[in-house]
């Protein structure tokens, strides 16, 4: 018994000694990293002989710091915005225009970059939502109901009207493609639409189009909007697909339309997307085909994308600038957005009397001559402004959970 006790004490002492040794080792390694980092910041001619010897003794640390520096430089270069010179831009757009004319089945993939002209920030640009969050900076909740379709949205609508674009696959949740007049059947909103809430208890799912952002009370893994289905009384939910979630709604996601369009595509035009999310959807890139039979890929973006090396042509420019030149080359007039013709006013489902104060988001301002029904801007239950919505909250919440683990 005494032997067992002594052995137990000895074992605990050994574990404590081992844990302490590991702590000391980690602290020594941190100190070495600090010293080596400080020395490497100096120019070689400014280093003392002792500092040079220190670097030689810690060659593994020097190699690791050099690798980190290279990775950091590559990352910074990828985040830089590059714009083609005027003549080069015109030449590239002329090549794109010729491809658009000859395409049998052109599909357009769009990202946040096509909506920046509507004062909606992008995600991965220098001042993008994800960029700010990764820097530890706060992202303000935004009411995007005042945004309107941009020049690029109207160009895409016209290209579809002229039968040059067959389908549009969008990552955006801002609803601006539909509001531009692009037909529903020609659009896949893979990450949802902020103006649409649905009842998934009804079969098929019943849609309610609203004239305000329905997502103020929703976020990652929490999609209930607080309103009820007028047919079965089940709680309505938004259609937004946050990071880490799998979108299963048939509409407005329309994955079937997107995959069928990609299968038939001979040309894919990517506008304003970093492609860091879209690249993960293998069905959109016809990866089951031999490389020579895959669609020609054209990318319009100011930053690097993971598909650049596979692109037939990469155009470094703002979407509105590129589309302006393209439409001129194609000799297609671009109509201005006309709020009176915005489809949302015909498609929207009015709120019931008991639902009038169920949200605080501003309504899309109606055309002149129609009544403005903007609600109060406070939660009647608490008297405080409501925060929330799809824009950045899911990502921020996810990061907080990971840090807590």
Can you walk me through this structure?
- The chain is α/β, with parallel strands linked by helices.
- It folds into 2 domains: 22-79, no CATH class; 86-404, Rossmann fold.
- Helix content is 36%, strand content 10%.
- It is built from 11 helices and 10 strands.
- The chain has helices at residues 2-40, 49-57, 59-79, 86-102, 129-134, 151-161, 176-180, 255-264, 319-330, 344-347, 393-404; strands spanning 106-110, 167-170, 187-189, 196-199, 206-209, 224-228, 235-238, 267-271, 296-300, 313-315.
- It has a 6-stranded parallel sheet, with helices on both faces. The chain has a 4-stranded antiparallel sheet with strand order 5-4-7-6, with no helix packed on it.
- Helix 7 links the parallel strand 2 and strand 3.
- Helix 4 crosses helix 9 (319-330).
Q: What is the overall silhouette?
A: globular
Q: Poorly predicted ranges (pLDDT <50, ≥5 residues)?
A: 122-135, 372-388, 392-405
Head-to-tail CA distance between termini:
41 Å
Under the CATH scheme, which architecture of the largest domain would be assigned?
Answer: 3-Layer(aba) Sandwich
Number of strands: 10
Strand and helix order: HHHHEHHEHEEEEEHEEEHHH
Radius of gyration (Å)? 27 Å
Helix-residue proportion: 25-40%
CATH topology title of the largest domain: Rossmann fold
What's the quick description here?
The chain has 405 residues and is α/β, with parallel strands linked by helices.
């Amino acid at each position: 018994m005494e032997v067992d006790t002594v052995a137990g004490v000895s074992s605990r002492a050994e574990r404590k000694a081992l844990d302490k040794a590991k702590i000391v080792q980690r602290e020594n390694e941190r100190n070495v990293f600090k010293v080596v980092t400080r020395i490497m910041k100096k120019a070689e001619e400014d280093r003392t002989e002792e500092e040079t010897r220190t670097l030689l003794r810690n060659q593994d640390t020097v190699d690791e710091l050099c690798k980190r520096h290279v990775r950091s430089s590559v990352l910074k270069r990828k985040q830089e915005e590059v714009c083609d010179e005027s003549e080069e831009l015109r030449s590239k757009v002329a090549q794109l225009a010729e491809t658009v004319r000859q395409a049998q089945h052109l599909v357009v993939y769009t990202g946040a970059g096509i909506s920046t002209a509507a004062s909606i920030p992008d995600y991965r640009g220098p001042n993008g939502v994800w960029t700010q969050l990764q820097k530890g900076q706060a992202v303000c909740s935004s009411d995007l109901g005042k945004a309107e379709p941009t020049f690029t949205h109207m160009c895409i609508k016209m290209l579809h009207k002229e039968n040059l674009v067959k389908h549009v696959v969008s990552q955006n949740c801002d609803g601006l493609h539909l509001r531009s007049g692009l037909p529903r059947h020609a659009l896949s909103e893979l990450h949802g639409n902020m103006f649409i809430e649905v009842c998934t208890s009804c079969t098929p799912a019943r849609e309610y189009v609203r004239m305000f952002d329905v997502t103020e009370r929703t976020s990652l893994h929490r999609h209930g909007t607080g309103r009820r289905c007028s047919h079965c009384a089940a709680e309505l939910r938004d259609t937004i697909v946050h990071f880490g979630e799998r979108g299963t709604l048939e509409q407005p996601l329309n994955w079937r339309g997107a995959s069928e369009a990609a299968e038939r595509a001979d040309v894919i035009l990517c506008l304003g997307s970093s492609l860091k999310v879209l690249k993960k959807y293998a069905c959109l890139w016809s990866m089951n085909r031999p490389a020579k039979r895959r669609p020609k890929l054209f990318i319009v973006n100011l930053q690097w994308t993971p598909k650049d090396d596979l692109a037939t042509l990469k155009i470094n420019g703002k979407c509105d600038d590129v589309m302006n030149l393209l439409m001129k080359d194609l000799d297609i007039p671009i109509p201005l957005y006309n709020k009176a013709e915005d489809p949302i006013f015909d498609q929207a489902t009015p709120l019931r009397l008991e639902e009038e104060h169920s949200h605080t988001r501003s309504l899309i301002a109606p055309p002149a001559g129609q009544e403005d029904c903007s609600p109060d801007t406070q939660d009647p239950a608490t008297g405080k402004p409501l925060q929330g919505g799809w824009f950045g909250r899911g990502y921020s919440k996810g990061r907080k959970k990971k840090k807590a683990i």
